[in-house]
Amino acid sequence: MADKVPFIRLNSGYDMPMLGLGTYNSFRPNEVGDALKVAIPTGYRHIDTAWLYKTEPEIGAAIKELIKDGKVKREELFIVTKLWDNCHEPEKVEPACRASLEALGMDYVDMYLIHFPLSFADFERTVPTVADYLDTWRAMEKLVDKGLVRSIGVSNFNKQQLERILNMDGLKYKPANNQVEITPYLAEEDLLQFSLKNGISTTAYGPFGAPGQNYIQEDAPKILEIPTIVEIGKKYGKSSAQVILRWGIQRGYAIVPKSTNPARLAENFDIFDFELSEEDMKTMLDLDRGQRVNPTILKFKDHPFYPH
Ligand SMILES: NC(=O)c1ccc[n+]([C@@H]2O[C@H](COP(=O)([O-])OP(=O)(O)OC[C@H]3O[C@@H](n4cnc5c(N)ncnc54)[C@H](OP(=O)(O)O)[C@@H]3O)[C@@H](O)[C@H]2O)c1
Question: 26 C-alpha vs ligand 1 centroid, how far in Å?
């Protein structure tokens, strides 16, 4: 249940459960709402959404019902949502945050992230702009002071971009979190260590390489089928998905696997009764190829704020 999940104490003073539920690509009506009605009783408390995902209204409605039925209290939940790339200009930040709050039916979120360092004029990201994320950050800080969000952070930022925020004039709040792709093929050890040293927590997205999205992975096994991981799992009586999640928890970051399938929601939660040995941790790290599986960001290499 929920008390099995360890927390990360954020630099904002709040605690973030290390296992969360991803909600991207849950587009069928009631898909994510029904998933939450399984996930919350299973013990998930950290829910990851974004304006982009269009799942905020269904998540908000399901949570309202779960609270009404006494299954969970709002203060036990850790709700994360994200500012989309067409709202980086400072004057657009608070209205965007308020729109997400309205969609969720909540008066605050636990964490609000700048979804990408990249700024665009339009929702579809066809027209790049040069709205600097440092100005966006100043507007994010005001959301904390207004009580609309408890913690603020970023997503898809590299080390230099984090450093730029940490060194900016008049910084009031350091980023509490950076949410990035981390998989056995993309271990991000340098970024992780840099973040740990600077008090910035990390959340891993796409831990299984998003198998439902058919991202092309021609030159290597699909992440959940990597023989080394399957073999490690056999030693502990666990699936490769469970080994990957456990590896993340032991490396010290939060992780937000997406599932809307009741059996897989339970499987992904069942990772707190075993511990990978140091040797297996190292074997997992050795699978790193510095290779993204999620191709989304690669389309924008010419953007001035691309996280090279
Ligand atoms: N910040 C960002 O830019 C960013 C980018 C991408 C994702 N994210 C966040 O991270 C979350 C996770 O990433 P993701 O959704 O891209 O990919 P993912 O979590 O790596 O993979 C999700 C896929 O794996 C399947 N799955 C889940 N558990 C499984 C298991 N135990 N065994 C086999 N298959 C399993 C799911 O299918 P079923 O649902 O059928 O189980 C779904 O097709 C997203 O939902 C989103 O919240 C953030």
Answer: 10
257 lines ligand 1 (CB under 6 A): yes
Catalytic residues: 53
Binding site membership of 262 for ligand 1 (Cβ less than 6 Å): no
Tens-digit pLDDT profile for residues 192-227: 999 999 999 999 999 999 887 766 666 789 999 999
Distance 261 CA to ligand 1 centre (A): 11
DSSP E strands: which ranges in the chain?
7-9, 15-17, 20-22, 46-48, 78-83, 109-114, 119-120, 128-129, 149-155, 177-181, 201-205, 254-255
Q: How far is the CA of 258 from the centre of ligand 1 (A)?
A: 3
Token readout for 121 is: 């004029």
The whole-model pTM stands at 0.98
* Whether the CB of 183 sits within 6 Å of ligand 1: no
Q: What percent of the chain has pLDDT over 70?
A: 98
> Is the CATH number of domain 2-300 3.40.50.10860?
no
Tokens of 173: 């709040």
Question: How far is residue 188's CA from residue 184's CA, in Å, rounded to a whole number?
Answer: 9
**For 49-99, what is each residue's pLDDT tens digit?**
999 999 999 999 999 999 999 999 999 999 999 999 999 999 999 999 999
Q: Tell me which residue has its CA closest to atom 47 in ligand 1.
A: 22
Helix ranges restricted to H, 17-125: 31-42, 56-68, 90-104
